TrEMBL record:
This is DDE Tnp4 domain-containing protein. GO terms for molecular function: hydrolase activity; metal ion binding; nuclease activity. The lineage of its organism: Eukaryota, Viridiplantae, Streptophyta, Embryophyta, Tracheophyta. It comes from the Eukaryota. Its main location: nucleus.
């Protein structure tokens, strides 16, 4: 399943544009030309600034994960990998540009992929103890969400599997995909990534796996993530399910009428960080939007490795161009003012019954405490909101 969507990307699928092919008679000249040119050329071709590219080469070499060969230096090896994942290219297209055999291209692609996987754990850092500035500096969220460390959401990425394996990988829309869960910080980094679940896996199955497996999603004591598809349990706060949640579910001139509605609106604003984080990831590495013709294990590694590179770039250059495109904060207008109210307004909280997977590692008392925590946040938020009305 190869992409022919040439209108979406300057370089995509089976062919490199002729102007690029004319730039170099071989891979060495192409890479040297990019790295000796303007920084924008490196960002365009290798999806990161030059100094980050060189630093990543040094890191992989210092750890003994990549080595110069007689024919191909580390810089060219990394360039091959980044050019493929950054432009959704197939091996034969890269052969045209780098003038190497398909076997050589594939070998170095896999070597770099495995090298990045080896450093990935160091690049997925758990949240710290400080209140994120995105919360502390916004009166809509502080102090109510002061213990929130990020948001958790899922994403489907296309996969290519054999005909006999396709059934479990078809998601609810009938598309072949893998189901990935990720925990994101409010500064667009990934804290945790669990890839490889079949597209047909339910949200609760993937969530249950993430919080119970050996390498599980860790939530610091007293902290929590915001979730939407997943249950309201210790460490994870969900919106009120019987109240409209997404902004499109509210008319543009709608005013929150009770605590549940106000809570859901602000919860939705904060949790939208996952959309922006995934947006940056897919814009930088469009291979994730197509089904690359690699073994399934390689396709799973690609999700984790690109998320790790995403974090590496964010750490080394927070104002990277791709991040700036998606970094619009959550201060966009949202009309929370209320129409005139008569008499005393009491916070209204939805009463929900929780149907949880029997495998979830929480008892009824813990689930009830999580529900009480959400109610207390919503009530405090509503009281502050009413108090601030003119």
């Amino acid at each position: 399943m190869e992409s022919s969507d040439d209108d979406e990307s300057e370089v995509c699928g089976n062919h490199v544009p002729k102007e690029l092919s004319r730039l170099a008679s071989n891979g060495v000249k192409f890479v040297d030309g990019v790295l000796n040119g303007e920084n924008e050329q490196c960002l365009k071709n290798f999806r990161m600034d030059k100094h980050i590219f060189y630093k990543l080469c040094d890191t992989l070499q210092a750890k003994g994960l990549l080595h110069h060969t007689n024919r191909i230096k580390i810089e060219e090896q990394l360039a091959i990998f980044l050019f493929i994942v950054g432009h959704n290219l197939r091996t034969r297209a890269v052969q045209e540009l780098f003038r190497y055999s398909g076997e050589t291209i594939s070998r170095h692609f896999n070597n770099v992929l495995n090298a990045i996987m080896s450093i990935s754990l160091d690049l997925f850092q758990p949240p710290g103890s400080d209140v994120p500035s995105e919360i502390s500096e916004d009166p809509r969220f502080y102090p109510y969400f002061k213990d929130c460390v990020g948001a958790v959401d899922g994403i489907y990425t296309p996969v290519m599997v054999g005909v006999d394996e396709q059934g479990p990988f078809r998601n609810k829309n009938g598309l072949l995909s893998q189901h990935t869960l990720a925990a994101c910080s409010f500064d667009l980094r990934f804290h945790y990534v669990l890839a490889g679940w079949e597209g047909s896996a339910t949200d609760s199955q993937v969530f249950n796996s993430a919080i119970t497996r050996r390498n599980k999603l860790q939530v610091p004591e007293g902290k929590y993530y915001l979730v939407n598809k997943y249950p309201n349990v210790p460490g994870f706060i969900a919106p009120y399910s019987t109240t409209p949640y997404h902004s499109k579910e509210f008319p543009s001139d709608y005013h929150p009428q009770n605590a549940s509605e106000l809570f859901n609106q602000r919860h939705s604003l904060l949790r939208s960080v996952t959309d922006r984080t995934f947006g940056v990831l897919k814009a930088r590495f469009p291979i994730l939007m197509y089904a690359p013709p690699y073994p399934l294990q390689t396709q799973v590694k690609l999700v984790v490795a690109t998320c790790a590179l995403h974090n590496y770039i964010r750490r080394e250059k927070p104002d990277d161009w791709f991040f700036k495109m998606y970094e619009q904060d959550i201060s966009y207008p949202m009309d929370e003012s209320l129409p005139r109210l008569e008499g005393e307004v009491q916070p209204k909280l939805d009463v929900e019954t929780h149907t949880l997977s029997v495998d979830l590692a929480f008892d009824a008392k813990e689930v009830e405490l999580a529900s009480q925590l959400r109610d207390s946040i919503a009530t405090e938020m509503w009281n502050g909101f009413i108090h601030d009305l003119p």
